[in-house]
Amino acid sequence: xxxxxxxxxxxxFAYPDGNQALFGVNLVINKGERVALLGPNGAGKTTLVMHLxxxxxxxxxxxxxxxxxxxxxxxxxxKKIRSQVGIVFQDPDDQLFMPTVGEDxxxxxYNMGLRGAELEKxxxxxxxxxxxxxxxxxxxxxxxxxxxxxxxxxxxxxxxxEILVLDEPSSNLDPASRRELADILRxxxxxVVMVTHDMPYAxxxxxxxxxxxxxxxxxxxxxxxxxxxxxxxxxxxxELPVGFSIN
Amino acid sequence: MVRxxxxxxxxxxxxxxxxxxxxGERLYLHRHSIVHSLPPHVxxxxxxxxxxxxxxxSITQWQLFIFYFSLILLTLTVAKIxxxxxxxxxxxxxxxxxxxxxxPFFGTGEQFSIGPVDLYRAGLLAGLSIxxxxxxxxxxxxxxxxxxxxxxxxxxxxKLKLPQLMVQIASFMLxxxxxxxxxxxxxxxxxxxRGFEATGIKHWKILATAAAALFIxxxxxxxxxxLAMLSRGYDGVLPHEEVTKVSVxxxxxxxxxxxxxxxxxxxxxxxx
Amino acid sequence: xxxxxxxxxxxxxxxxxxxxxxGIALSLKGAKKSLDEKSxxxxxxxxxxxxxxxxxxxxxxxxxxxxxxxxxxxxxxxxPYAATLALSVVLLMQSFLFADxxxxxxxxxxxxxxxxxxxxxxxxxxxxxxxxxxxKSSITIAxxxxxxxxxxxAATGFVLQYAIGGTATFSVQTVLAAMVGTHVLIGIGEAxxxxxxxxxxxxxxxxxxxxxxxxxxxxEIRKSI
Lengths: 247, 272, 225
What we know:
The complex is a heterotrimer of chains A (about 250), B (about 270) and C (about 220).
Chain A: E1 6-14, E2 20-29, E3 34-38, H1 45-52, E4 60-65, E5 68-69, H2 75-84, E6 85-88, H3 92-95, H4 101-111, H5 116-129, H6 145-157, E7 163-167, H7 175-187, E8 191-195, H8 199-205, E9 208-213, E10 216-222, H9 223-228, H10 230-235
Parallel strand pairs in A: 3-8, 3-9, 6-7, 7-8
Antiparallel strand pairs in A: 1-2, 1-4, 4-5, 9-10
Helix pairs in contact in A: 4-5, 4-6, 5-6
Chain B: E1 2-3, H1 5-15, H2 23-27, H3 34-37, H4 40-55, H5 62-78, H6 83-90, H7 94-102, E2 111-114, E3 117-120, H8 121-147, H9 150-159, H10 164-192, H11 204-231, H12 248-271
Antiparallel strand pairs in B: 2-3
Chain C: H1 10-35, H2 39-53, E1 58-61, E2 64-66, H3 71-78, H4 80-98, H5 106-131, H6 136-165, H7 172-205
Antiparallel strand pairs in C: 1-2
Helix pairs in contact in C: 1-4, 1-5, 2-4, 3-4, 3-5, 3-6, 3-7, 4-5, 5-6, 6-7
């Protein structure tokens, strides 16, 4: 039997300042699925994401990526997990920390041990996937926001991840950039977890949606069912945009 | 510490608050010249050697200072850097020039008078020395930062054995200085749009709160950048470029300037 | 206070450059221990913050304004090792990119502002924190006094360098009186702003403040909300 891409068992977490953000999350995501992770502000979505590749150490509960336990103490295992779980952060400025686009895309594969022509090939391919090939030598702050977001996706794709995790991928994008990114995501052959407030985007890209609220999963169903359940949405401070309907 | 208003304005205009220009690039003037094409670490070594020769020259050998200044003018011309630009950027040394200007009026020892003013000879010489050497130092740094991008300078320093962690700190600073100053500018605009203008000590609390907010934002960004780095397998080392050997010819080219200065200095000693 | 080239003679500049190099080496060791692998991006953004905050003008009176030095502030917020490194990088970049502070005077400037400013500030912070009760406002007060004293301390470093290798003709006593006198005044500004800034960080993210470490509590498991 194929191991699920991601399996989370009773995950709980509190920040060092004492604020508890997660109160026992359970979730299984199978290979090739595209899942929307919905929830109001402060529900713990970003906190959950930070656990997926061991950035926040699992203090209670367990996470498995392709059957392998995420264990912050196991440095070698963690390195492998981090190449398998590609996180695209909300603010591309956080993700693009190297002086040029090309160097930034190369950062991950370099840490995985690639060098020379092989590294070059991976970088070229990742930039081509997001349509940013001609920007390779540009500093990130010379790009538009939408372009930076695409490069951020490329930095993660260059690591050939098992799961692509996107934190608010459509935020601050103009309609055309939003469309282009959707096309890119649809063209990829990976498991996708998409944290978002953008309901139409979730509906368009993900067949399944889960709602995280006050630190636990309160709904897990077909995106269509979740988005048509008015009471569920209302209880969790979620709303469809005015004029948008699903039939 | 206390800066006069002039100086602040200079650093503000130089930094700018426009998207699409980082600090290094705004200072950097893109030209094709021998000076631009020299490897950065070679340029830094040449700059320091020239400075050492200048600083160890006594101001009483004023002919040498004329020679040094001509060498700098020559370099500015070769590097295609407008004199006006170099002059504007040198305004940064004004506070110390003011200090030096006072010196001939206070002091001890031999006095002489020009018209109605009495001046101290030692004070005058020391003042001239400080202004002369300081100006050359400033001009050298300006030639360096105008003909070399900030990143290249950093790469040069890395090659000259600046510790890795320092190089990393500096490269993060170059990457994020615009992001942070933009945040600072947005906070200022937000204050100004609600009618706030800092005019005196009574407004310090608001400015200090802004500084605190800026720290929290910077620190949190640092954390997020760190998370983004960890997510892509960072374990303490940034990728760096392969080391390329610099030919003797290039070294000779770069060291012409300090060599000429040194030669003139030595000749002067012999001649005396 | 950024010393230019030729203000202090070469041998003295050399001695302080060596001292600065040694101090940076020690700080690198210390920072690795206290910050782990986080050190580079966090110290980098701290340096960026210090650089930016030094451009923030605090109006004093008619046309004059001061700005923060930031040594004590950085030490209290991120710890003395990271603070030393951040301030050293800021000074390095200021001299190389803006010609602010002579290249040959870099060792002198780093010694005064990145060492004396940070460590004297941090030393007084620890001392006063010990004397006061363990409360959040004590941290603010201690940081404030640390800011106050760090500035004239850095100025004293300058006077020391001047006494050893100054090229100007003012007597050391005159320079001492002038520098320390004015810098006590500047220190008052530094004290108020450092205190207010640390207080504001304590109010919203006390867990970030190096000089104040909070406690974590037990986790609670929910089945529904």
